[in-house]
Amino acid sequence: QKEVEQNSGPLSVPEGAIASLNCTYSDRGSQSFFWYRQYSGKSPELIMFIYSNGDKEDGRFTAQLNKASQYVSLLIRDSQPSDSATYLCAVKGLGFNKFYFGSGTKLNVKP
Amino acid sequence: DTEVTQTPKHLVMGMTNKKSLKCEQHMGHRAMYWYKQKAKKPPELMFVYSYEKLSINESVPSRFSPECPNSSLLNLHLHALQPEDSALYLCASSQELASEAFFGQGTRLTVV
Given CB atoms, is A32 within the 8 Å cutoff of chain B? Predict the structure, then answer.
């Protein structure tokens, strides 16, 4: 079983819609959760991080964490074509030494 | 400032060559990471340094040798690589192991 699982997509949404990206993780002791955006040929860019159960909002982005269900999600409101990229979920386990990425979800926002 | 600088941006090397990748950050971060990323795959963790000490080695072949000369610098020494080692090599740093990590722009390595 992979440490971090994501649907590879592609997820297609129209411009202005809400994009919902999901991630599950296997290590119940995981402490820190991150979302990165990666454009083709570029390095990952940190979008959000969340450590506690519940929601965390930053502009058009909301990260949601449910440790009981071992589930973390990213909502992108008012999606723009520039949001089209691969979104990587990353998790740091107990002790924080392990920092693993999911396989990424490719998002296409259609004008 | 969340800048992590990697040099060179591109590197082509033969299988008998020795080269080094360099990574630098001036944010006072105490954890630094090397990742390898193949096309259409997620980054794979290679090494983690915390307070200049090697914390994690993810069973990486010995032809990859990391070095952390000081808290701002991280090197990856390459020797006798194989063509399948061609990839994007990413460096990242974080304030502490628990904190969010920031990536450099990567070094695109091609082994011929």
Answer: yes
Which chain B residue has its CA at the smallest distance from A87's CA? B42
Tokens of B70: 């000081």
Whether the Cβ atoms of residue B75 and residue B8 lie closer than 8 Å to each other? no
Per-residue confidence (pLDDT) for residue A95, from 0 to 100? 67
- If one compares A99 and A91, the residue with the highest pLDDT of the two is A91
- Return the ∠ at Cα B61 (arms to B56 and B67), rounded to 5°: 55
Percent of chain B beyond pLDDT 70? 98
Chain A touched by B27 (CB under 8 Å): no
Nearest to B42 among A34, A43, A102 (CB): A102
**Could you report the per-residue pLDDT of B6-28, keeping only the tens digit for each?**
999 999 999 999 999 999 999 99
Q: Provide the 8-state DSSP code for A66.
A: E
Residues of A in contact with B106 (CB under 8 A): 42-43
What is the rounded distance in angstroms from the CA atom of residue B54 to the CA atom of residue B49? 4
Note if the bond before B83 is cis, omega within 30 degrees. Answer: no
